UniProtKB/TrEMBL annotation:
Source species of the chain: Salvelinus namaycush (Lake trout)
Source taxonomy: Eukaryota, Metazoa, Chordata, Craniata, Vertebrata
Name under which the protein is recorded: Hepatocyte growth factor-like
Record PANTHER family: HEPATOCYTE GROWTH FACTOR, PLASMINOGEN-RELATED
UniProt-annotated stretches for the region Disordered: 211-236
Disulfide pairings: 199-276, 220-259, 248-271, 311-350, 339-362
Amino acid sequence: MKAEIIWIYKLFLCVVLAVNSECRKQSLQQYQKSEDTRLLCPDCPQPSMVKYSRSLEHCARKCSKNKKTFTCRAFYFDHQNRKCHLLPFDRFMDGAHREYRVNFDLYEKKDYVRECIIGSGVNYKGRRAVTKDKIPCQSWTESFPHEHTFQPARLGKKDLNGNFCRNPKNESSGPWCFTTDPEVRHQECGLPQCSQVECMRCNGEDYKGPMDHTDSGKECQRWDSSKPHRHPYQPKKYPDKGLNDNYCRNPDNRLRPWCYTLDPQTPWEYCNISVCDPGNDSDVDATSSCFREQGQSYHGTVSVTPSGVTCQRWDSQFPHNHTYSPQNYKCKDLRENYCRNPDGAEIPWCFTTDPNQRLAFCTNIPRCETENIDTEDCYEDNGGNYTGNLSKTRSGIPCGLWANHSNSGESSVGLERNLCRNPDQDKHGPWCHTTDPSIPWDYCKLKRCDKSPNISAHPRSISLVSKTSCFIHKTTRIVGGAQVHKAKDGSWVVSIQKGVGYSTDCL
Ligand SMILES: *[C@@H]1O[C@H](CO)[C@@H](O)[C@H](O)[C@H]1NC(C)=O
Ligand SMILES: *[C@@H]1O[C@H](CO)[C@@H](O)[C@H](O)[C@H]1NC(C)=O
Ligand SMILES: *[C@@H]1O[C@H](CO)[C@@H](O)[C@H](O)[C@H]1NC(C)=O
Ligand SMILES: *[C@@H]1O[C@H](CO)[C@@H](O)[C@H](O)[C@H]1NC(C)=O
Ligand SMILES: *[C@@H]1O[C@H](CO)[C@@H](O)[C@H](O)[C@H]1NC(C)=O
Ligand SMILES: *[C@@H]1O[C@H](CO)[C@@H](O)[C@H](O)[C@H]1NC(C)=O
Ligand SMILES: *[C@@H]1O[C@H](CO)[C@@H](O)[C@H](O)[C@H]1NC(C)=O
Ligand SMILES: *[C@@H]1O[C@H](CO)[C@@H](O)[C@H](O)[C@H]1NC(C)=O
């Protein structure tokens, strides 16, 4: 009864404060969104109701108001014509089908389409109709084999539909039903908690499950809403993070999935999600002498940065304090001071023992050779004429703009944007400045075209090189107190000399 009074009070507030955008925004809370979709059911007994609506939220509020004769289970909104389609059916109704339609967004009430519960499952309106011992449920309208007083007509709001499991009295044991077994009057249905239906691995970075309440039981705020908390994790900006509706997610490598909460006093909280049995969780993709893709499975022992600075131990907070402790990130293999990629960076990295350089990418770890270069691109001879669109170094670091590194006297013809080029006819092919401050430049992830003979066997390219090879990489920077310049084999060396670093082709 108390809960109902609170609910009525909230509704009253929303009606009185119709201009209050908080009520408006949060009207989408209970819904599951499907973008560019509508839901049709030509054969359903009751047709949908179409109304003009000034906004999506307005449409949602119409659907949330249950009428005696029309139970709205879902709605879709036609953004272009501002038409609000209220649906007395959901996607699981016989004959209902979803259809792709640009500019239409479908919102279904979670209580109808989700087969898990939060807490006691008092709002559960799903389609489970067997008990935990697999006994089929008795229909609520029937009084055989068990007579009872739960009349659907009288308890309209409880949705005592068909023979589906329900929890009309908010019992802590969850939804239940009368059974068709004369020996068993009623039994609970064993519906799983939403926190348990999908387990999480590691720190739950890939968790895409349906939990939408925090540890302390607070309801999560929708990711596509900025009420009550403004935040940077707009789903459109992070399409691969699964920021759907208001589910607990871990888009930023925190310890566990979390969410913003509806409580204005509590910006965010962690969620309690079951952890997968580690069992055979050994990383089959682990590599040690080289790394694949972004190197998240690199388990090797490189522990110096490309410029020769020793990496900081992961279990140390000195000289740099950080949150990537081995005990917090158990499956990231943060042993010793080895280069790792615990946060989905481009490639493995480490904190450095140089107080002036917080972290460095370990571009000194090679990529695995078996890995296909993901581009068909190749260059002829030394790549001096290369005009392709690649703009990543061999270790995957994005190239920096040439314009930011312009040398007076250097011909900037063809040095477009941040594309890989070879303005100094470097023997080892096209290169670029990088966006990693600790790596002034590096070669690009390009192959020499097969038909092109190798450079030492090709007299013309040798003459080409000797003609123009005194291009100066003036971008040399002081890194960790030392000068970095290019060496013959393309690897990095640390120089203690002051001055400009020259391409060794000149020397
Ligand atoms: C259901 O019961 C739980 C505790 O048992 C309570 O917290 C919750 O408010 C109740 N819900 C309703 C709708 O009565
Ligand atoms: C988290 O869930 C587990 C299993 O359901 C439960 O035992 C534990 O008490 C929960 N922890 C919190 C903080 O809610
Ligand atoms: C691990 O996997 C192997 C083979 O895939 C299997 O023989 C072994 O029983 C598994 N161990 C565990 C603990 O699951
Ligand atoms: C690192 O130390 C600074 C200053 O002592 C502190 O403000 C900051 O919160 C610390 N960061 C972490 C991740 O511990
Ligand atoms: C690059 O292009 C110039 C002029 O277009 C041409 O003379 C030269 O032979 C080309 N060099 C290579 C290595 O293909
Ligand atoms: C490179 O990109 C430009 C525009 O971004 C495009 O017009 C051109 O065809 C691309 N070239 C190659 C070789 O893919
Ligand atoms: C590079 O240049 C662009 C535009 O010219 C500028 O926005 C950017 O801040 C520059 N970056 C650096 C590192 O100087
Ligand atoms: C490059 O040329 C040398 C000498 O002719 C030859 O031994 C070597 O196999 C060649 N390498 C490639 C990749 O063709």
